[in-house]
Amino acid sequence: METSLRYSTNSTSLKIHTKEKLPVNSKTLFHLHGELDAGAPSYFCAMIIYFFHEASTSLKVGLHYDKREKLRCLVRGKNKFLVRTDELVTFNIKGKSKPWRAFKRKGVQKRGEKLAELANIWKFHKEQDLRLRVGYDMFDKVLKS
Question: In the CATH scheme, what is the code of domain 2-144?
Fold first, then answer.
């Protein structure tokens, strides 16, 4: 199980994030992750991740619960391009869709989210690292971290 402390620009508090990845087979994982904000759970997610290793791409499908939008279905995709051969610096393209919205409001669909980001990892110890991610949301035209 991985545990991390997270702070983002859209929150005023430091959050505890935890995740566990359970292998199903060589190309599939069952991924559980959640977050505590001031001692109360702020979200929990369970997803199946399928990897296309040849293309450095992954597809995720699952359920997500948070205190604002309650229970929802998510579909995510990610394509990773190496900037350095050691995989410490990558350029990532991510997309997310919430397919239930099309059924909730007839004729009105949320456009989803598309993000391009540059990720850098610094290895401090064998089992500890620091990750810095800076991205740009292509629809909202804002920086994301």
Answer: 2.40.160
Q: Is the dihedral of CA 50, 53, 54, 55 positive or negative?
A: positive
Band (pLDDT 50/70/90 cuts) for residue 108 is: very low
Please tell me what DSSP assigns to residue 50: E
Element (H, E) at 48: strand 40-52
The phi-psi region of residue 139 (left if phi > 0; otherwise alpha if psi is between -120 and 50; otherwise beta) is alpha
- Indicate the DSSP class of residue 53: G
Q: Residue type for 79, please?
A: N
Whether 113 shows a pLDDT value over 80: the answer reads no
| Poorest-pLDDT segment among 79-83, 99-103, 118-122 | 99-103
Distances (CA, A) of 120 to 81, 91, 129, 142: 12, 9, 10, 20
